[in-house]
Amino acid sequence: MDQKGYRRGSFQSSTSDEDMLEIAGASLDFSMADDDPPLDREMGGFSSYNGGGMNGSSTMMDFLEEPLPGVGTYEDFNTIDWVREKSRDRDRHREITSRSKESTWALIHSVSDAFSGWLLMLLIGLLAGSLAGLIDISAHWMTDLKEGVCLAGFWFNHEHCCWKSNTTFTDRDKCPEWKSWSQLILGYGEGAFAYILNYFMYVSWALLFSLLAVLLVKGFAPYACGSGIPEIKTILSGFIIRGYLGKWTLIIKTITLVLAVSSGLSLGKEGPLVHVACCCGNILCHLFTKYRKNEAKRREVLSAAAAAGVSVAFGAPIGGVLFSLEEVSYYFPLKTLWRSFFAALVAAFTLRSINPFGNSRLVLFYVEFHMPWHLLELVPFILLGIFGGLWGAFFIRSNIAWCRRRKTTKLGKYPVLEVFVVTAITAVLAFPNEYTRMSTSELISELFNDCGILDSSKLCEYVNDFNSTKGDDLPDRAAGPGVYTAMWQLALALIMKVFITIFTFGMKVPSGLFIPSMAVGAIAGRLLGVAVEQLAFYHHDWAIFSGWCSQGADCITPGLYAMVGAAACLGGVTRMTVSLVVIMFELTGGLEYIVPLMAAAMTSKWVADAIGREGIYDAHIRLNGYPFLEAKEEFSHKTLAMDVMRPRRSDPPLTVITQDSMTVEDVETIINETTYSGYPVVVSRESQRLVGFVLRRDLIISIENARKKQDGIVSTSIIYFTDHSPPLPPSSPSMLKLRSILDLSPFTVTDQTPMEIVVDIFRKLGLRQCLVTHNGKLLGIITKKDVLKHIAQLANQDPDSILFN
Amino acid sequence: GCEFLFPQASMMFAQCTRLCATSVLLIALLCCILSPPAQASKSSEDIRCKCICPPYRNISGHIYNKNVSQKDCNCLHVVEPMPVPGNDVEAYCLLCECKYEERSTTTIKVIIIIYLSVVGALLLYMAFLVLVDPLIRKPDAYTQPLHNEEENEDARSLATAPTPSGARANTVLERVEGAQQRWKRQVQEQRKTVFDRHKMLS
Predict the structure, then answer these.
(1) What does the alpha-carbon distance between residue A781 and residue A783 come to, in Å, rounded to a whole number?
(2) Taking every annotated instance into account, which residue ranges of this chain make up the domain CBS (chain A) (predicted)?
(3) Residue A623: which of B55, B191, B202 has the nearest Cβ?
């Protein structure tokens, strides 16, 4: 079938569409004999299964008329019609229920249809968990590959290599099986030359990994770069981006995510894991008809898949569901809540059984201490919240400025070179400082750690007074030289991470934002925590400390400060509220720290909101011009519908199609001359009384199909949308009935409707367009793009930045 | 009536078969990934009991590893030779912390090898596409330069249809080639959107 007309500017990459287009069209019997008695409704329902299921009229002609393949699908970069999708699903469900009484087979079919949702969730959880396990294990191995290799089996990372051998208490990393590159090449590991060789190998491996990542992304799946969450938010609000959740994107994103994380760049894997999980969801949807053919149901599944993605990233199923509810999804029916939780649990359980970290934990930085905290410590916690908010606002501003520069200037023409340069700078600056040399997850894990007598890292090198040691409960002690060294190294690491993340997020490799923000917050928190601890130790007689922190007591836990700092910075950047607190408390496994976490999260959100209104994902949506109608903000201006509708006073009048007086040629001319995605159908040009709305894509498919398959359809054939054909002299060519593609219930508002109600209607119902009437006559049309441009104009932003149709 | 139930039933059956086949395949694949952890936990080299003992009086800190089962994972069984005399053992063992850990070396090996083979396969395919493919396609292809902004649908659809018009691509090779051409066009379009026009994902 020649598909010129509607392929313009779009490529159907999803296999379902292509399958549908290759099926031969059903036979259409459009003979003039219209006097057969209509069959009863039961049979007529069969035809409305898959097409424009809006009209219930059922003549013999309608019954034989199977919906054309392609009718009811959407072009790339278009918005879906939520109302139509939901009504199609209801029709389908009604039909299955009514048929289930007829035979056992149909009953089984209806039961399996009801369970298909749960089976799909199970499969998504399994696949997402397995992929997350693969990513975790591979990333761990490749990160350590930059420093050395295991002789007992090259597939072991450093920790697993030294698993069996006896390590010393102070040097827990050294074992004979693990050889650093200088040891392997030169034979010795100490000395200036060995250091330089290690440095060189580290930088080379980092460059190799990142170059490989960007070449794979550019060569196979350009949609696999970036974080993915802004685009998934847009897709879940009703936008179609073909190929964004396809199999090649899934494979390339998984592979290049491991490469990007292992190359030492300042990025994380949580955001891309959400994209990976949504790809799994989309691909598995093709197994079930219920979800393959219906875009609205598919988006419910994608919301659940996003929850599973966050769940495996943090080991937090509840936090994952709340993240999906708060950040990613647009419409979240209650049924989806239970199913998302199921998918998240299955994914977490699958990951746990793969056991990537060897201790049945899902995340590297799980916190296991439960030390109490004092109310006076809320002051430093709120300080951390303020720091988090300030850093979040600063990061968003600078990252958006840098991304805008990448988008508009020559910088964007050299993506591979950009990745190369940023990796080189990151690797060269990261190697000398041991806290930036280790992977960011390990850094966070070390910062969250509470120092006990069993720890021997530099950060825990306090001055020990053995006489006062009572078991494992160490009091606050004076900081030893190791702690001071660690402090200034951490301060340097903080500065480096703050600046390098700005240039890293948004590059053409998969990049997430959660881990770098948590690292920045954890470093700041730990610094503050150690400062407060030392203050309490040396000045335990001050009024603020004397009440609760006497000498010899263990009152300040710097690990807790690191955790609160991490939560504050993450909240400042993403503006998450409930989901952030729940994720953090699932990481700690207890409710004791809910109050500090909430205090810090709330403070950071308020401070960041005072400086800039949007979180990082909304800012990227606006930067890219996606047609995303923000559901959280109130529309507070007093404009009316007639101020926003098209056509304006100076424009040509509204392009309409009449219900029974236009020929095929006229309609084709309209289609070719205008680029609107749909046309209102009126009774006649003089009366302008509204009949319905017809979509461009459906018109093109139907007309082309009719020209090929039906007898007698020529350019002068009349197209009619009414139930019965208009009376015409018998010598005229046969007429084309297109009532089945007409939407008989378009939404209308009057021209005096306030825009706040119109915006509310668009948000709540998920409309693409809304017709405007005046005194009952059709006056104009408001599309979602017009609404977005209007909001942008009123917010003094550039209305032309809304790019997509 | 049977006449319209039967096609529907056969369509449902076909879909069900497809669904069942794909589910079985998926579950088999997942079992391959998940079963090594279940089996290998019995292997002796994959379990250990790790006891960390801090410095005590004039004895330096030490780490002890031994592969014992979980019920034997405590200080008395693992720490040998005991560095303190008999009456101090209890005080010393109170300071030590013993943890039972298990891992699955088979899972790690399998996953790393799968990962490396996928990366290798992708690199080979990329090398093939960049180097070998243009040489094969040169006689009958109409290659479009990558930065060409205009979309010439007809030329592209003509050029990429190697089969004669009207005949369906029935043989496996022609179908594969058709799918590959479609995929290449799709990647090119995505590349234009992301890298050239910066319409998305900037």
Answers:
(1) 6
(2) 645-709, 735-801
(3) B202
Q: What is the pLDDT of residues A271-322, one digit of tens each?
A: 999 999 999 999 999 999 889 999 999 999 999 999 999 999 988 999 999 9
Residue A377 CA: distances (Å) to CA of A383, A549, A566, A571: 10, 11, 16, 20
CB contact under 8 A, A169 and B55: yes
3-state secondary structure of A692: strand
Whether CATH 3.40.50.620 fits A378-463+473-624: no
How far is residue A604's CA from residue A610's CA, in Å, rounded to a whole number?
Answer: 10
Q: How confident is the model at residue B138 (pLDDT cuts 50, 70, 90)?
A: low
**Of residues B29, B118, B186, the one with CA closest to residue A129:** B29
Angle, helices A229-236/A295-314, rounded to nearest 10 degrees: 150
The 10s digit of each residue's pLDDT in A110-166 is 898 889 999 999 999 999 999 999 999 999 999 999 999 999 888 998 888 888 887
Domain chopping of chain A, boundaries: 123-163+172-354, 378-463+473-624, 641-795
Please report the residues numbered 8 through 37 in chain B whose beta carbons come closer than 8 angstroms to any beta carbon of chain A: 9, 12, 15-16, 18-19, 22-23, 26-27, 30, 33-34, 37
What is the Cα–Cα distance from A440 to A522, expressed in whole angstroms? 11
Paired residues of A106 in beta bridges: none
Distance CA(A33)–CA(A37), nearest Å, equals: 11
- Architecture of the structural domain at A641-795: Roll (3.10)
Q: CB A624 to CB B57 under 8 A?
A: no
Structure letter (DSSP) for residue B45: G
Query: Is CATH 1.10.3080.10 the classification given to domain A123-163+172-354?
Result: yes
Most confident listed range (A228-237, B26-35, B135-144, B158-167): A228-237
Residue of A2, A11, A225 to mutate, testing the B interface (most B Cβ within 10 Å of its Cβ): A11
3-state SS of chain B: helix, strand, coil percent to 5?
A: 60, 10, 30
Same fold, A123-163+172-354 and A641-795: no
